[in-house]
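Format notes (please read before filing issues)

Several people have asked whether sequences and structure tokens are stored in separate files. They are not. Every record keeps both together, in the order shown below: the sequence lines, then the token lines. Line labels are part of the format and must not be stripped during preprocessing.
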Amino acid sequence: NAITELTIQLQDPLPAGNYNLVINNGSDGNTIHDVCQTPLTAGVSFPFTIVGQPPPVIDTILYNGCAPSLLKVALNKIVSCGSISNSGSEFSISPGAHPIASVQTSCSGSPSATDTILIQLQNPLPFGNYLLTVNNGTDGNTLVDTCGTSMVSGYNFPFVINQVTTAPSVQTITFDECKPFQLVVNFDKPVACNTISPNGSEFAISPGAFSVSGISLNCVNGMATHAVLTLSGNLPAGNFNLLINSGADGNSIADSCFAFIAAPYSFAFATTRAPAPVYDSVQYDRCSPNTLKVFYSKPILCNSVILNGAEFSITGPAAVAITGVTMDATCNSGYTNWVALNLSQPINTMGTFVLHNVAGADGNSVQDTCYASQNTNETIAFNVLGKPAANFADVLQFGCVMDTLVVSHPGGNGINSWQWTFSDGTILTGPAVTHMFPVSTVTAAVQLIVSNGVCSDTSSRTYSLNNAFAVGFTSSADTVCRRRDIIFTNTSTGNNLNYTWNFGDGSSFKGQQPPPHSYAAAGNYSVTLTAGNNHFCTSDSVRIVHVTD
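Then the structure lines:
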């Protein structure tokens, strides 16, 4: 057998340079023989040159969509798949931080090689100008072609992610004057939820010291059409600007193609203020109020009312102190339809009083459900008629036949009606009346009802009369012998009586019951018992006694 060419397999590739192939005796003791058995001369050399191969470079970088997460890197020559780490540690993208998740290759041949590399990014790549840089990977090399030539470490390939959309902008800002601590920011297109910081740090309000304390997004499939901003305070009526800058996540707000709003961005908006609540009416007892139920033009926030009543004061013809407030059961839902002011004591003074609204210790007066504060100079007047007192003066005049009761009332607090009702059924009217009772009346009573047309009061009194009396006596005999005792027995009736006995013989006795009496001479004697009371009324009883020898 004979050959015309010989392939020499080297252990390692030869780098570019000039070389000599030297003929030597082999392990078989000779060089190479031709077909005529003529050997090549040992030591003969044949010069040859390994021409230097240019290192592989990137030809193009292709992608799909507006914010790709997969880059297709095409090389100008095939490279060994064994020189590419699966983690893609050879590659980096600048500017910015754009972590690479992995690389994918479609290798073929022997040794295995490819001219296309797919770089999978952890996050989509926004539009902009970038450099793909190739350095030694974790395997200690860059990309090596099939000739053993390595891509130069630090090799850069510029590429562009084109901007195919315009950045989103604020279309409108919705402000609800009943929620002055909140703004609804409506975008002109859906924005990527993951480009907005959880604390809403991209947003600010100017002017004023209003910060964003919370944010909620209507995210659907990662996109939102509006953001609801909760502010640190209530915006007053005025003109403001919503500012958008880079947030805590290092960027502003982008659409699905990662077209970011250019910071600083400003959008002007105006706010209005809900009409302040005003007093509507006061419900109270017009005669003697100890509670005032105050109604407003709209519901009031319960947590804006200080429970000790410090946001209210009352002036008028008498001092009035407020001890606290109570509110409607609707406070379970956060609002009340009225505020009841509890007073330290009833108002019994007739006149016009004024309820004032003042700022409490919390710095504001009462607020409605739109957080509008009542003006502190607002007042509402209410008239108190004053509860009339039915206390009256009386004079009781005792008589011998009739007792006279004189009663009178001083009036005041608008009293225009007096009704006196006596125990015998008699009814009289007027501020002062006189009425008589027979002295035989044991107990008399009178009731007075006074009224000023709205308010009334009643007072009653009872009187003990029972000053009637009757005088009488009996004797143990109508005829009696001289110097014989006769007994006179007092049969009078009545209270607190004093008695005088005249026996007709010139002798007398003071007291209720006289001792036995005798006469010295015969004759007819007129015996008289006189009784009187403390009211100068007197009455006599007379009997004739016959005295014989």
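For reference, the curators noted about this record: The CA atoms of residues 485 and 518 lie 4 Å apart. The first strand starts at residue 17 and ends at 22.
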